[in-house]
Amino acid sequence: MARIVVDVMLKPEILDPQGKAIANELPRIGLKNFTDVRQGKRFELTVDGEVTEELLAQAREAAAELLSNPVIEDVINVEALED
Amino acid sequence: MARIVVDVMLKPEILDPQGKAIANELPRIGLKNFTDVRQGKRFELTVDGEVTEELLAQAREAAAELLSNPVIEDVINVEALED
């Protein structure tokens, strides 16, 4: 059993109100060194056995077809998860 | 300018209906090799200058205080993002 991680973020030009709300709140708890926050999604896909190149290709397909909205999001990372 | 990434996942014992819905949908688009899917959150925190140990400590504090709900979520990763 192994896992593949897929990271999806809003495209840079898309507004991120959740991230903005967090960025605004951080100074209120004393954390003043962060100039921006963006919130995205992380998926962990479990597979039987080892992560093969074919499974990574299937994960990239899942990322493009089901895990992201290509109009507003970028799949920024698909890789085997080190346990 | 640099970024710190924070990954937050539901605790393993917490049900993840969104992940389950995705796992159920994958075979319908021909992807039958994934036995489970979990959906979590990825945050990117921007800082001025380089990522220092102090900024990483502040990011860990932000992760614990604001970016996660410790009752149901685990902060699984806080690290400088390689550009």
UniProtKB/TrEMBL annotation, chains A, B:
Catalysed reactions, as listed in the record: N(2)-formyl-N(1)-(5-phospho-beta-D-ribosyl)glycinamide + L-glutamine + ATP + H2O = 2-formamido-N(1)-(5-O-phospho-beta-D-ribosyl)acetamidine + L-glutamate + ADP + phosphate + H(+)
Coiled coil: none
Assembly and interaction partners: Part of the FGAM synthase complex composed of 1 PurL, 1 PurQ and 2 PurS subunits.
Organism, scientific name: Rothia terrae
Annotated EC: 6.3.5.3
Cross-referenced PANTHER family: PHOSPHORIBOSYLFORMYLGLYCINAMIDINE SYNTHASE SUBUNIT PURS (PTHR34696:SF1)
Protein name: Phosphoribosylformylglycinamidine synthase subunit PurS
Taxonomic path: Bacteria, Bacillati, Actinomycetota, Actinomycetes, Micrococcales
Pathway as given in its UniProt record: Purine metabolism; IMP biosynthesis via de novo pathway; 5-amino-1-(5-phospho-D-ribosyl)imidazole from N(2)-formyl-N(1)-(5-phospho-D-ribosyl)glycinamide: step 1/2
Localization, UniProt: Cytoplasm
Top EC class, one word: ligase
Family: Belongs to the PurS family.
Function: Part of the phosphoribosylformylglycinamidine synthase complex involved in the purines biosynthetic pathway. Catalyzes the ATP-dependent conversion of formylglycinamide ribonucleotide (FGAR) and glutamine to yield formylglycinamidine ribonucleotide (FGAM) and glutamate. The FGAM synthase complex is composed of three subunits. PurQ produces an ammonia molecule by converting glutamine to glutamate. PurL transfers the ammonia molecule to FGAR to form FGAM in an ATP-dependent manner.
Name of encoding gene: purS
GO CC field: cytoplasm
Entry keyword Nucleotide-binding: yes
Listed GO MF terms: ATP binding; phosphoribosylformylglycinamidine synthase activity
